[in-house]
Amino acid sequence: MSISAFIPEPVNDFERKFNVPVAAESFFSECWEPAAEALGLKWVPIFSTGIDVMKEDLPAVLDELARLKQWALSQAGGERMAKLASRIELLQTELPKALQRDGAVVYIG
């Protein structure tokens, strides 16, 4: 199984095609979750069980992603941490695009 971000009720072609890979569940539990716990994050740990993100949630989610990315880049771990950082960057870029429409919801899970 894997975790991704998508729009469950799309209203246009962009929203229908919106799908951002986050992580395989094993990679999420090995890399994302321990880091999120160490940083005291609230949103990121819920990605594994699934969460709806709305426009008003975006600043908090982006803040946590920025903190997680900074943590990943400061760790030894080479390819794994680079992969984690690249997936975070993808979310940081794509989530704001998906949440431009009032009432839009992105499900991450």
Q: Can you walk me through this structure?
A:
There is one protein chain. The protein has 109 residues and is of the alpha+beta class. It has one domain (2-108). It is 52% helix and 17% strand. It contains four helices and four strands. It has helices at 13-17, 25-39, 58-73, 78-98; strands at 2-6, 19-24, 51-54, 105-108. It has a four-stranded antiparallel β-sheet. Helix 2 (25-39) crosses helix 3 and helix 3 packs antiparallel against helix 4 (78-98). The mean pLDDT is 94.
Question: What is the structure about, briefly put?
Answer:
The chain is an alpha+beta fold and 109 residues long.
Radius of gyration of CA atoms, rounded to a whole number: 13 Å
Structural class: alpha+beta
**Would you report the number of β strands?**
4
Mean pLDDT across the residues is 94
Percent helix: 40-55%
Number of domains: 1
> Ends: how far apart?
10 Å
State the shape: globular
Sheet with the most strands: spatial strand order: 2-1-4-3
Question: How are helices and strands ordered from N to C?
Answer: EHEHEHHE
Taking pLDDT < 50 over at least 5 consecutive residues as the criterion, the unreliable ranges are none
**Proportion of β residues?**
15-25%
What about the largest sheet? 4 strands, antiparallel
- Give me the number of helical elements: 4
Topology:
Layout: E1 2-6, H1 13-17, E2 19-24, H2 25-39, E3 51-54, H3 58-73, H4 78-98, E4 105-108
Antiparallel strand pairs: 1-2, 1-4, 3-4
Question: Keywords for this structure?
Answer:
4-stranded antiparallel sheet; alpha+beta; 109 residues
